[in-house]
Amino acid sequence: MARRPLPRLPISATDRIARTRELARTAADNATDVLHPLITISRGLRLLAAAGLRKWADTPKERRGPTLFLAAVCVLGVGLAPYGPLLALITLMGVAAWRGRERTPARTGPTEAETTRLQALYDALVPYFSVPEDPSPLFAHGGEWAKTFSDHRFDGGGRLTRLRVTYPAYFTDGEAEARARIEQLLHAKSGRGREYLFDWDEEGNQLLMSVLSPLPTTVAAQRFVTAPGELVLGFTDPGAVQRTVPVVDGEETRDAPPVVWRTGPRSTEPHLLAVGHPGSGTTSLLRSIALQALTQGDVLIVEGSGTGEYACLTGRTGVLAVECGLAGALASLEWAAHETERRLITANRARQAGHPAPEDTRRPLYVLVDRPSVFSHLAAADGRTDPQQLLQVPLRHGRAVHVTVVVADQFDSLEFLSETVRTHTRARAVLGPATPAQVESVLGAPPHTTPTSEVPPGRGYARMGTGGVLRLQVPATPDPYDDATSEAHRQAVLELLPERQITPDEQRAEDERRAADPRTEPVAEPLTDPLPEPLVEPLAEPLPEPAPEPAASARPRPATTPVPAEG
């Protein structure tokens, strides 16, 4: 008895097509696996041929003949060599296989997490960049970020480091408050703790946000390549200034963009005001200025804190005095005022007579006053003259006779600075952590970046007159007598200090030692040498009687030892 065939399941046309596609895909995958070496070599040969054609097109016409002759000689040499053609073919196939290998394609778009961050930032900007009357808004709820965001970059942690935003033309980008709201939002959404730079292109309706790298803090005090009358306050971002100076950074030498302050008669900002919080680096800035100024002229230091931060400069050549007490500060500043008047009168009479200004009126004099508000309080309590009143003459008229005043104080004492000090100190510096409002109150313009809450000492902003606001990092110039100072920074400061002068007491002790032992070598001559002859003829009219301080034409007296502030 014959067996009945099993019933077949009906196969539809769709199932046939699907099965056919699966068989074709399987056959293609198998063929690709089998022919993969051949495909790789073919791809490599195509890349080599394209590179050869580009090389031939770039070759000048006068060099193509020698190139062809050299190639023919090489082919002939390979053909005549034993096993030459075989080795050449194997080498060509190997190079083609290497060039045609599959490479991991580079990621061209943002990841899923980065896309989510960009979309969240887009949604946050919708209320600021959209109005109900706009028929086709760039920013709308539920819109796509791709049409407004471009040039976006992320760091390893997935945070934005660069972003270009295209905003509508009706946004009031000319108002500081509107721009500040956008900057604050981008700063908060992109990650705090970093310093952002916002570049507004008002003509193209674009905003470029970029994260600035921290300024290096490894540059220590050293001799900088500057012109006479120029002082380096610190260093800023590359591209912010139009010059660089060579600096020694650790064990290497590199070019760094400096913030240069120009002093002297042709300076439009002859005096400087530095403001900061305790520990922000204003004293280090004044110490750095003093070390640079000693290579050009004389320095008079008045310290209101009374902590002996400038003790390393006491008794050095060119340092007229280092005063820490109220009496010494008043005497020194009164002498500076009389010296400024004397220089003005002498230079004026020389010009009237048709002669150049005498040499003693052209030697720079730098008056560094650290925390004058402390002396103002002590003077008011003691019924004496406010030291800031004695700075009026050097501040008003010092530029014409090479007298420069540098004042440093703290934010909590800023209101106690006199109007004269505020008006005539057109070069400004703000150091340490500060809010944008505090920076604007000192510099007269808001910072161009977002200040951070934690910064190293000496980090801040600087502005010369009506110029732009620059980021600033002061060279590391600590007190070499401080135990917390590193050995490298201590030696850097000590190498810049001038030679120490011999006081009369030290000379007397040296004379006694020489009398006891005649073989002792003599030391540098004391400060009690006869005064040099004046450089100009005596004035017909007597000048105001100066305070008992050394005149510029006389040898400066030894600097006083720092003592605690009075009161």
Overall average residue pLDDT: 84
- General form: elongated
Report the count of strand segments.
16
> Measured on Cα atoms, how large is the radius of gyration?
38 Å
Profile the largest sheet.
8 strands, mixed
Tally of helical segments: 16
What's the arrangement of strands in the largest beta sheet?
A: 11-10-12-13-9-14-15-16
Helix content: 25-40%
Binned strand content: 15-25%
- Classification by helices and strands: alpha/beta
Ranges with pLDDT <50 over ≥5 residues? 523-567
Report how far the terminal alpha carbons are from each other: 132 Å
Describe this structure in words.
The structure is a single chain. The chain is an alpha/beta fold. Helices cover 37% and strands 16% of the residues. The protein contains 16 helices and 16 strands. The strands form 4 sheets. The protein has an 8-stranded mixed β-sheet with strand order 11-10-12-13-9-14-15-16, sandwiched between helices. A 4-stranded antiparallel β-sheet has the order 1-2-4-3, covered by helices on one side. Strands 5-8 form a two-stranded antiparallel sheet. It starts with 12 loop residues before the first helix and ends in a 51-residue tail after the last helix.
Topology:
Blueprint: H1 13-34, H2 36-58, H3 61-80, H4 84-99, H5 112-125, E1 149-154, E2 160-166, H6 176-190, E3 195-201, E4 206-212, E5 230-235, E6 245-249, E7 252-256, E8 258-262, E9 272-276, H7 282-293, E10 298-303, E11 319-323, H8 326-352, H9 359-362, E12 365-370, H10 372-382, H11 387-390, H12 392-397, E13 403-410, H13 419-424, E14 427-431, H14 436-443, E15 459-464, E16 470-473, H15 487-496, H16 504-516
Parallel strand pairs: 9-13, 9-14, 10-11, 10-12, 12-13
Antiparallel strand pairs: 1-2, 2-4, 3-4, 5-8, 6-7, 14-15, 15-16
Helix pairs in contact: 2-4
